[in-house]
Write a structure and sequence with these properties.
190 residues, alpha/beta, globular, binds adenosine monophosphate
Length: 190
Amino acid sequence: MTNLILFGPPGSGKGTQAAKMIEKYGLVHISTGDLFRYEMGNDTPLGQQAKAYMAKGELVPDSVTIGMLKNKVESHPDSKGFIFDGFPRTINQAQALDALLAEKNASINALIALQVDDEEIVQRIKKRGATSGRPDDNDETIIRNRIQVYKNETTPVFDYYDRQGKSHSINGIGGIDEIFGLITQVIDSI
Ligand code: AMP
């Protein structure tokens, strides 16, 4: 199995790059943000639990998020690997993911972090907000809170995998194909 974490702040291009990675590598893409939006759209109990946190740009509690992620992974027993996008966002989530993969005699092969500075992120997300219809993309205070939450709660996940020699940083500013080229270089080297 090849299991990759696509890492980076909100608006760093993870979704765009994940779409290209699925095509090239045939891995299953799991975006916890997309899963939460799907649940919210269907007004399920899970969606209702996530709603208030997402609206504020806060993390949904680990207990809820980890359970949802596990179900999604288990629903693809024959996958040759996964691209985790927007997960793990806490050390607790990273440990749960490692334990889940270990049950399958697998592990994370690489974490690929897209680096984009704060002001570029704010501009990109505002632009995306015009078409995404996401309330959390249309309020600068919420956008800045998401960036802060990323810095405080999520960047330790980079260090966690860095200690295992698995974290790779790449420049997330540039053309889509140029950035994809950097991602494929990392994947092809593991
Ligand atoms: P995203 O689409 O990845 O930007 O996620 C949108 C929102 O969904 C985040 O601001 C969080 O409220 C929630 N969310 C997505 N993934 C996670 C996660 N791994 N842990 C906690 N909350 C998450």
